[in-house]
Design goal:
about 140 residues; alpha+beta; Double Stranded RNA Binding Domain; two-stranded antiparallel sheet; about 15% strand; elongated
């Protein structure tokens, strides 16, 4: 069971975990031990609430395939168990992040003193630049 929130969990049979060989440096060990994990999670076939499914399918994330599957490759650690836990935690974080409401931006205006300071600095800079002209005798 993967716990997303207090009320929402994903059963283990909906998450497909496959052990694969990790890529990158690691010497002889990397060629003979399958310590990386490929996680596949089909959003449409899951038991998640429709609101979660909708938000996940609308994500513009490279880990989301066209078929509606989330694919996560975990190879950060040297052991299979740590990579499995890492992949599951990353899936949970992705789902939590998809349903989190973004804070709305409140438009603001610069204060009167800020506008005056800006204009003064522009005038001052203009005077400095005007002094750079050719000197006439």
């Amino acid at each position: 069971m993967l716990h997303i929130t207090n009320t929402i969990t994903i059963p283990d049979n909906e998450i497909d975990l496959t052990a694969i060989r990790a890529q990158g440096s690691g010497g002889q060990n990397v060629n003979k031990v399958s310590s990386a994990v490929h996680l596949r999670f089909d959003i449409r076939a899951s038991t998640l609430p429709d609101f979660y499914k909708e938000r996940l399918l609308n994500l513009s994330d490279q880990r989301l395939s066209k078929e509606g599957e989330i694919i996560i490759k975990a190879q950060r650690f040297r052991t299979l168990e740590k990579n499995r836990a890492d992949a599951l935690e990353r899936l949970a974080e992705l789902i939590r992040g998809a349903v989190r409401e973004k804070r709305r931006r409140r438009p603001t205006k610069p204060s009167r003193s800020a506008r005056e300071k800006r204009l003064e600095s522009k005038e001052k800079r203009g005077r400095v630049k005007a002094m750079r002209g050719k000197v006439e005798e």
